[in-house]
Design goal:
Elements: E1 8-16, E2 28-30, E3 47-56, H1 65-68, E4 70-74, H2 90-106, E5 112-122, E6 145-146, H3 150-160, E7 173-181, E8 191-194, E9 205-212, E10 215-222, E11 230-232, E12 240-248, E13 258-260, E14 272-281
Parallel strand pairs: 2-9, 3-11
Antiparallel strand pairs: 1-3, 4-12, 5-14, 6-10, 7-12, 7-14, 8-11, 8-13, 9-10
GO molecular function, one term: oxidoreductase activity
Protein name: CmcJ-like methyltransferase
InterPro entries: AsaB-like
């Protein structure tokens, strides 16, 4: 397959609309059916679909985690697409150990790293035109967001480490995501990340309730701003790891709003990817 370098992608981003609704009610979304609840809504999101230019990270100034909210790490790992699973199988356990070792090596500021969870995604050909098709794996997430707000970070820590509050309360930590494709090269629905320096935290960001059958979490959603600078990795290979911060315990460090984007020039098979989320203590 010939690989022409794309310096940018022209696409659309479904931002959360700046709608008066959110002056009265908080944005929310549920990840379970609510039809058994009379008058139940899966979400109250109103979207503002904006044209965006997404720039290629390759070849230019390399992003820095503490400045841009994300960075690139080139590292070989052992997990194959056939072995990838959402269960803790032996190949998955081996992979999680490799991710920990890579993070310790590349980011010495972290004194303790613990795996929180992981997610395999495999796009079905019907996505995104036929929502509701039964799928084995989660589909690409297209709304620009971070996985957690500061409050949501502590909610998730309580879920992952029940009864162990003394291990993370009053501690400084980051919630980090390590994202890669399972089969490269990939240009199908690549991950786009927004340069943190281009986000106005006072005007562009709003908390969003994440409703689950077993509880509630919180993340951040993004409103449109022409100042936003978006980036992707052209022809991503299995050894191209994208490392980004979702949140930190103090809410002061760079974080990466992110979303999967449609690439109108894609020639690859449907994207197959894996993300690992860790808590990294300073």
């Amino acid at each position: 397959m010939a690989q022409a370098i794309d310096t940018e992608i022209q696409t659309y981003m479904p931002y959360l609309a700046r709608n008066e609704r959110y002056n009265k009610e908080k944005p929310f979304g549920a990840d379970f059916p609510v039809d058994r609840c009379e008058g139940g809504q899966c979400a109250n999101h109103i979207f503002d679909n904006q044209a965006v230019t997404v720039h290629n990270m390759r070849g230019g100034e390399q992003p820095v985690l503490d400045r841009h909210g994300f960075c690139l790490v080139h590292a070989q790992t052992s997990l194959t697409a056939a072995e990838a699973s959402n269960s803790r199988t032996p190949p998955m356990e081996r992979y999680l150990g490799e991710i920990e070792r890579i993070l310790y090596e590349k980011f010495p500021e972290y004194l303790r790293i613990e795996i929180m969870d992981f997610q395999v995604r495999k796009r079905v050909p019907e996505f995104p035109h036929k929502i509701g098709v039964k799928v084995e794996f989660e589909q690409p997430a297209t709304v620009p967001h971070t996985d957690f707000s500061v409050s949501g970070a502590f909610m998730r820590m309580k879920d992952i480490f029940p009864g162990q509050e003394e291990h993370y309360e009053n501690k400084s930590f980051d919630l980090i995501n390590v994202w890669r494709v399972l089969k490269g090269p990939n240009d199908d629905w690549p991950l786009a990340l927004c340069d943190f320096q281009s986000v106005d935290l006072d005007k562009d960001v709003t908390p969003n309730d994440c409703l689950h059958e077993t509880g509630v979490g919180e993340n951040w959603l993004l409103h449109a701003n022409d100042s936003h600078r978006w980036y992707f990795m052209d022809w991503q290979e299995e050894a191209d790891l994208i490392v980004f911060r979702n949140a930190d315990s103090e809410g002061v460090r760079a974080r990466a709003f992110h979303a999967a984007i449609r690439n109108p020039k894609s020639v690859c098979e449907p994207r197959h990817s894996i993300e690992v989320r860790v808590v990294a203590f300073r």
